[in-house]
Design a protein that fits this description.
mainly alpha, two-stranded antiparallel ribbon, 31 helices, 1% strand, globular
């Protein structure tokens, strides 16, 4: 069986170490043990993770490919096509139809079982798992589905036996002892003594993950002292502790009658993560909350959710879906899992289903606002920008202290080239954010770009300058401001100084390389300009501006045929009308004698979407 469910724990840990612990666990909007990527603008990712199928881990018999008889090819290939295009329900239906013609084909049974689970058809997936268990009762995915069925009817003995028989391989090997301990809690309730020390010792990099569940278990069985100790071990550094853990620990202290300790947990997290939008406006209210995890069934749901969040961002979309499906079957109203599931729908471009899932998150959840902002982005992805903007405006009015809806709205307006409106919206967001800190430089940068594009250069320059006071030597801002000065033939010495600083920080950034080339071009050093433009075009071969610049430089050094080729390429990439007209003129007449700086759109050679404030 292809072990989609067995994503290697060592592989995940290696990735985590490469990224750095904080980036891996927090990155942006951390709801579990790994982040949902996001910015203040909540921009939808342009790069979609590929569906991956991991090779078998541990002992597994090699299975032949399903036999595809002529009459079955249509359904089987349609199922494969639908799976490739992320139409999960269609894929499950096609594969089920194929299986009806070849019911004993184990490879096809496995494929169909996984697809049913991915699509959320738990009953159908479990039916196939029971059939496969006759020969493969040690398979982790099959065992998990059978455990799920047993736990739902409080059959702890069967649940325990099923997991005991499973192979402890890959990431499943990490969570298997935790799963068994949760099942023991379900069976013995308050009488159970939690013992996960061996699992903690073997977990290595993931010890905080296991300690978190040890804390939850002790909390459920009523051992407050042990819960406190385990929770503390899962929160050694607030800078890297996932928000979900923070929420659980604060919840524990509130229920223990220690609101000041709960507030201290939130305060430490807020200090370490100043851009977080997850902390409630009034995190500690004095009213005793319900436990974050109230029983073993909810604990198992938490286990599968936090495991899914380990895989999230690992380009393991199928793996993440599988764990989330089981989590939500155990606990349908689990907002962080619902948020992650909706984000996965985004990644596979099922925006309608993403919207439905975001709407399932209740308003009382700390994830509600974030879900609604992302809902707006999905409206935009469906071509319903007016609806998206209206939703963001409504959110901004409803939550007057939250700048995120306004930042997102400003980004949409800027993307639509409605620069005046974008600048006004960003101004409202800035008013809500003042006093600005170093983390807020992208907001000034975005408004500065909007001002510059709208012809308000003095306001743009002021924003770029203030952004640099907040974050000195920020390469994106340095590049934009320096390039603008070059095109205006002003502050040339300082422009070159800024480009030197930016280039030193990002020597391989093609946009900065292009700006340096333009500085050489304006100085009349065409040979050096050619060298820089050729470097830039290697990284940005489809960029109209870089092709245009290289064509200009080629013309100046006498390489006129190559110059026209680059101008034609630039024109093929459909630049803005004024640039296109200039290119057509150059193709017809060449360049006039060099007379210094020629005015070009200042934003032409920088990334069209500036870096944005990260939200956690």
């Amino acid at each position: 069986m292809q072990a989609i469910f067995l994503h290697g724990a060592q592989s995940v840990a290696k990735t985590a170490r490469m990224l750095g612990f904080k980036q891996f666990l927090l990155a942006s909007a951390c709801v579990g043990f790994v982040a949902i990527p996001a910015n203040a603008s909540e921009k939808l990712s342009k790069e979609r993770p590929a569906i991956v199928q991991s090779p078998a881990v541990g002992e597994a018999l090699a299975k032949p490919n399903p036999e595809v008889r002529p009459g079955l090819a249509g359904s089987f290939l349609s199922g494969r096509f639908a799976k490739h295009n992320q139409d999960l329900q269609e894929a499950a239906r096609f594969l089920e139809n194929t299986l009806a013609h070849d019911p004993e084909n184990e490879a096809l049974q496995q494929e169909t079982m996984r697809m049913h689970l991915l699509a959320g058809n738990i009953g159908s997936a479990t039916t196939l798992a029971k059939k496969l268990a006759q020969n493969q009762n040690n398979d982790p995915l099959i065992a998990s589905l059978l455990m799920l069925e047993a736990v739902k009817v409080d059959d702890c003995a069967t649940a325990n036996t099923t997991i005991e028989q499973s192979r402890p391989v890959g990431l499943f090997g990490l969570i298997r002892p935790v799963m068994l301990e949760w099942i023991a809690v379900a069976e013995e309730d308050k009488k159970h003594t939690v013992n996960l020390q061996t699992a903690v010792d073997k977990a290595g990099f993931f010890a905080p993950f296991v300690n978190y569940h040890a804390g939850l278990m002790n909390d459920v069985v009523g051992n407050a002292a042990a819960a406190k100790a385990s929770y503390a071990k899962s929160n050694l550094d607030p800078a890297v502790t996932p928000y979900r853990v923070v929420e659980a620990i604060a919840n524990f202290y509130e229920r223990q009658g220690k609101p000041e300790d709960a507030q201290a947990i939130y305060d430490a997290y807020a200090k370490a993560n100043p851009q977080s939008t997850l902390i409630p406006d009034k995190p500690v209210t004095g009213v005793l909350p319900k436990p974050l995890v109230g029983d073993a069934k909810q604990g198992l749901a938490e286990l599968f959710f936090t495991t899914a969040s380990i895989l999230f961002g690992e380009s393991a979309t199928q793996d993440t879906f599988l764990y989330l499906r089981i989590a939500l079957e155990l606990r349908p109203n689990l907002p962080p899992a619902q948020l992650m599931l909706a984000n996965l729908y985004e990644q596979v471009e099922d925006y309608k289903q993403a919207i439905i899932t975001y709407d399932s998150i209740p308003e009382g959840s700390v994830f509600y606002r974030r879900a609604q902002v992302r809902k707006a982005l999905n409206f935009e992805a469906l071509g319903q920008k007016p609806k998206a903007l209206a939703l963001l405006e409504a959110l901004a009015n409803r939550y007057p202290n939250d700048a995120t809806p306004l930042i997102t709205k400003g980004d949409m307006e800027r993307d639509a080239k409605n620069y005046a409106a974008a600048a006004e919206t960003y101004s409202s967001a800035i008013s809500r954010t003042e006093p600005l800190t170093a983390n807020d430089w992208p907001l000034l940068y975005a408004r500065g770009i909007s001002y510059e594009r709208d012809g308000e250069w003095s306001k743009a320059e002021a924003d770029f300058t203030r952004a640099l006071t907040l974050e000195p030597e920020q390469p994106d801002v340095l590049n934009y401001l320096a390039y603008s000065w070059l095109t205006m033939n002003k502050n040339l010495t300082k422009a070159r100084e800024y480009l030197e600083i930016a280039s030193a920080q990002r020597p391989d950034d093609a946009h900065i390389i292009d700006s340096v080339g333009w500085a050489y071009y304006l100085a009349g050093d065409f040979k050096s300009a050619v060298e820089y433009f050729e470097r830039a075009i290697t990284a940005l071969p489809d960029d109209a501006t870089v092709n245009d610049h290289l064509g200009d430089a080629y013309w100046r050094v006498g390489r006129t045929i190559e110059a026209k080729f680059q101008w034609e390429r630039a024109l093929a990439f459909k630049p803005e009308t004024d640039v296109a007209n200039a290119l057509k003129d150059k193709l017809a007449n060449g360049l006039p004698a060099f007379a210094g700086a020629a005015v070009k759109p200042a934003s032409a050679n920088v990334a069209t979407t500036p870096a944005r404030t990260q939200v956690q």
